[in-house]
Amino acid sequence: MGSFICRQPNGLLCRFSTVVDCVTHYNMTDEEYIKMKMEQAREEAEDTLKHYIKPYEMISIYFKPDNMTVKEFKRIKTEMERTVSK
Q1: What is the dihedral of CA 50, 52, 15, 12, to 10 degrees?
Q2: Phi, psi angle pair for 71, to nearest 5°
Q3: Gap between the Cα atoms of 82 and 86, Å rounded
Q4: So where are the chain's domains?
Q5: Does the model's pTM come out above 0.90?
Q6: Among candidates 7, 5, 30, 8, which has minimal Cα distance to 16?
Q7: Over its length of 86 residues, how does the chain's per-residue pLDDT go in tens digits?
Q8: What is the largest CA-CA distance in the chain?
């Protein structure tokens, strides 16, 4: 699981880590918790863009027509390959 969030008796939030088996954040307002999660999401997204971008050709290699038809896949690929003006 990694961690969980609890509402403290004083109405604020705490985060308990099941990795280190202790409280890692406490007395957070709802807004502070949301801000923390947004910062974590941004860091994760930046890390993905920096280290985990795959070659575009992989979408054709991995595509299976289970949840999308071949026709729809081809239509979307055509749209993705069209030059976008900025």
Answers
A1: 60
A2: -60, -45
A3: 13
A4: 3-81
A5: no
A6: 5
A7: 799 999 999 999 999 999 999 999 999 999 999 999 999 999 999 999 999 999 999 999 999 999 999 999 999 999 999 998 87
A8: 56
